[in-house]
Amino acid sequence: MASLALPEKASSAKFFYGRITRDEAEIILKERGCNEGLYLLRESISPLGNYAISICHHNKVHHYIVEKQVDGTFMIPDGRRFQGPLELIKFYQNNPDGFVTRPTAPCNRGSNQTPVAFRGMTYHDLEKELMQRAKSIKNVRMDKAMGTMRDSLIKMVAKDLHLKMPWYHQRISREEAEVRLLKDGHQDGKFLVRERDDHKSYALTLSSKLCPKHYFININAEKFSIEDGPKFECLIMLIDHYHNKQDGLACKLTRPVCCPKYDKDKFKSYIDNSTNNVLYQSLQNQRHSFMQSEFDDPPDVPAPSPPNMQRRQSGSSRRPLPPVPARPPEEWDQDNLDLGAAPDIQISIDGDNLEDEYVKVRRESKRFQLNPSQIQLQDKLGSGQFGSVVKGVCFLGKKEIPVAIKTLKNEDYKPDQKPEIVREAEVMQELDHKHIVRMIGLCEAENIMLVLELAPLGPLNKYLVKNKDLKQSEVVLLMKQVAEGMTYLEARKFVHRDLAARNVLLVTERFAKISDFGMSKALNRDSNYYEASEAGKWPLKWYAPECIYYFKFDSRSDVWSYGVTLWEALSFGKKPYHKMKGQAILEFLQDGRRLEKPETCCDEAYEIMMECWKFEKTHRPSFSQLSLKMKGLYESLLAQRM
Ligand code: AMP
């Protein structure tokens, strides 16, 4: 029988995570190794007052409801009664019959990880609210209010908690709700709640497929519900529920649109993360402890020598250079190209959601040929060498997916030649990587249209010019992704031939994709490089010497371009070699000189650039080596909070 002493507070246990879902519990336990007997305690999402224990056995997670009984005690189905869930766990630690295995190893939270009461609210915050309210209840002792009366107290407090939530926008019109959602950037699952004009009901405004959807929140007998959905004691519980389950909505809720009166920073982890705070924090903690251990125990290698900043050391193994070609290849006039900035209307899309959509599309549609009726054109995104690019929607079965549509300029169409855009499509249809813009299809109407994944934030160089407050680590993360995409190309023997910051497009601030395969080539099986038969209009500032002298291209010449792209990124969109032209650049390089270290760039990053610009291509790293270097650089910058 249960002891008569007061139960221990569940929230005092380090293995208590608050109101997280079963799936979230599984992720946490699996992250920690899923060892036999590893367990955690969580509070049931509903009904209020119940708990659940998640425990690992034979590499699987099992879940037990710890049900609150009418007499205030707790038990697992068919088990004994206990004063509280902690007493219950202690008992089963010494008694084999109960769970599939004994709860022997608590899965404790990280040091900066607090249990979650509701999305955007920790247990600690909730306890404070409860205490305040408990104090105001006359004639009731605090211990009773916080003990046996706790559930009713939570209900009382929770009724007003929405007023403290960033998603609650008070009384605004439907139109204003739509404007706020649009301004914040559409993204599946973004939402806000507003009070309706009648002062008696609320509405949920939810972003789905770049459109606002409105749901009426009904209040009946003091219970809140959305049509045909479950009923809740209060608004905050309803919102929590729809974070966990779609339950008839267009999609699950993910991130709140923050009401202007709130300080966004206070709710940062809630606003920034489409999943639960706990998950986010657990991943952060893992990373933190990983880096800590790297810090405590530095690898046994000599400190790197300072990079060779400007001039090549005399006496280095420098191969005699061929004379500068009398007529070097023509250089593009980069400055006069309309590379298109990020679109004016701000559409921000969750990289992961969009990525899932495109992966599914690629897997499901075997044919790339699209019918004109499947495409709807919208605003212009930019224009490149061969034509313009517009935003649009592509209808595939029941799906409507956001796309970018590249159209060939009419004057560039030569009936006797395969259009450039078709050659680009032929390369792209072979590629499938998350950091490479995927081709959705080709549509031959009046103009030939190449339909691509949309990268709503546009080219990296333009983005960085406007967003100079990005941290170095954030820029390096994007360039690490570019290295990963290039590693894929390298492994598949594709040369890009036009890698530059203007051709790195951003899906979000943390998700980059390589684009523009207009100049790319697949190498023959028995050839390690592509040799151009004649010089074309080439982006010389990004080209390795062997491309200019011998017209030879391979992954190591892409590595040179990667170095220039990294320089552009860490210079926040500056133009390389300033106003120098082709011939002057060749002489500059021949002289052993290189682009200078960007102002805010760390030595390690510059060292990577310098390796990419080794004159002898075999001395340059491969992309798979670069990916590792960039990963290391990213982690070290994160650890230094740079
Ligand atoms: P390109 O012809 O590939 O050089 O593209 C020209 C411009 O169109 C780029 O600089 C971007 O501004 C825009 N653009 C091209 N592809 C996309 C895409 N997939 N998503 C978003 N914008 C794009």
What share of the residues does DSSP label as strand, in percent?
15-25%
Bound molecules: adenosine monophosphate
Mean model confidence by pLDDT: 80
- Assigned CATH class of the largest domain: Mainly Alpha
CATH topology of the largest domain: Transferase(Phosphotransferase), domain 1
| Classification by helices and strands | alpha+beta
Biggest sheet, in brief? Answer: 6 strands, mixed
Instruction: Tell me roughly what share of residues is in helical segments.
Output: 25-40%
Number of strands: 25
| CATH level-4 homologous superfamily of the largest domain | Transferase(Phosphotransferase) domain 1
Note the total helix count. Answer: 18
The number of distinct structural domains comes to 4
Query: Could you name the ranges where pLDDT drops below 50 across 5 or more consecutive residues?
Result: 1-5, 274-328, 333-350
The backbone outline, from C-alpha atoms, is elongated
Estimated radius of gyration: 29 Å
* Physical arrangement of strands within the biggest beta sheet: 13-17-18-16-15-14
- What is the correct CATH architecture of the largest domain? Orthogonal Bundle
Task: Please explain how this structure is put together.
By secondary structure, the chain is an alpha+beta fold. It has four domains: 10-109, SHC Adaptor Protein; 127-290, SH2 domain (SHC Adaptor Protein); 298-309 and 459-642, Orthogonal Bundle (Transferase(Phosphotransferase), domain 1); 341-454, Phosphorylase Kinase, domain 1 (2-Layer Sandwich). It has a six-stranded mixed β-sheet. It has a five-stranded mixed β-sheet with strand order 4-3-2-1-5. The longest helix has 20 residues, at 277-296. Bound molecules: adenosine monophosphate (AMP). Adenosine monophosphate is lined by residues 339-340, 381-384, 389, 404, 406, 437, 452-455, 458-459, 502, 505, 515-516.
